[in-house]
Write a structure and sequence with these properties.
By secondary structure, this protein is of the alpha+beta class. It has 15 helices and 14 strands.
Length: about 500
Amino acid sequence: MLLSMAAGPARSASSGAGQIFEIGSSGRALGMGNAHTAVVKDATSLYYNPAGLGLLEGKEVHLMKASLFAGASYDYLSYAQNLKKKPGGWGLQVLRLGVTGPQGRDETNSPTGGFTYAETAIGFGYGVRGAFVPDLSMGMGVKLLNRALGPSSDKHMAVDMGAQYGPVSDGNLTFGAVIHNLASKSSGDTSDTLSPKIKLGTSYRVMGPMVVAFDVSSDKEFNLGAEYRFGSLALRAGLSPEGMTFGGGLLFRKSFAFDLAVITNPTLGLSQRVSLGYRFGANKPKKLSALAEEYLNNGLAELELHNYATASKNIESALGLDPAVGGKEWKRKAARLRTLLEGMDLEEAKDRGTLQEPTPQSALVHRAVMSYLVGDNSEAMLLAHVAAGGTGGDSVYMRILQSMAKATRQNIVREDIVPLPIFIQDRTRKTVESIHARRFDVAIRASRDVLLIQPEDGGSWMRLGSAYFASGDRTKALDAYKKALHLEPDNGKLREFLAENFHE
């Protein structure tokens, strides 16, 4: 009963080991009804969801000290920091719950001294951002708990696993999940264990300064919370199994966070929690955004060097650090590149050398990849066909074509897998024959195929102009003829034709 009163608003009806992990560690979280599974990304992440460690932007320290009911006291201290050169972070936490019991007496009613109850816990955790996909953070925490009541004591060890996905939906929606005590071990004078508990949560930014959050746990407990920020101030309200919660926060000089929570309990009344956080170097520019830009630039450089696997890793890391880096299109491009590489079975050491060789094929396949990334599937497939021409069926160029066909859901045209000179010769012949047969749409497509491969060919531009002219499209014809004349300025016949028909 003494311990239940001490824990009070955390879980007054709970029993067994681990009540120290139910009290809370943050005035912000407690003010929001402890609905924090999808919200947390600070030094208290190890307590609520270790996946939040993957979103750290720097170094942070957090502490909370509370006087609970029945003379109990509770202390919490945590430190966390990011990995600097990787999207992720790690953290440490120390917790202590102490209760001083009543004075003991022997059979003669003589005082024998009081007894005390104490729970002390330490924990370490690690989180990464961009695990498997850019928007996913995953984390793991290990905690050790020691309980002592008079001469009796016991020890517990457990592992927590968590995940956060988002923000998605224009940066407004985040999902969270954590399994507390996924694996545990107990020893000493007890039959209690740290029982597994699953929490699922979501948070949504209703408008710029307002966030609402909701958690549900495997023991059918619900937590609901909201936060409204205006400048350096914040107002909070929530609903937990124990009752309503309210709170507020103040951010001072972007470094100091002072948070207050008021917790109601129908049996024990009101109680307050105060926490203080400090973020080192918060007045400096955001490190994660700068690091994300660096990763993205490295990824773009690797793309130009045809190091597609390395480029993908760098771009994924950039998006893991800052999902908005480079604009919204890079999330889509990163996903497309990842899909392409998954289907290629790329042997990096061997294939990278082939793709980096200064050959027409490597140039064509690079153009194919870049067209694919921006969503021009038809152009990408044509370039990939020609790049694969004249190679064996197990070549890296053929594997790129096969993977691209699967990713774009287009069929491979075997007739187009030919060496580059043969492809140009075939399309040129097709252009001329189609013009004579008055099949101008076929002639235009064939000419454009050639120009896609060799855009500086004046003859192909002239044939394209002839196809447009014969079809009656004088505007496009003139444009094609001008490009042909630009590439072949000594073409007197073309100049006479333009003067006679276009007065150019």
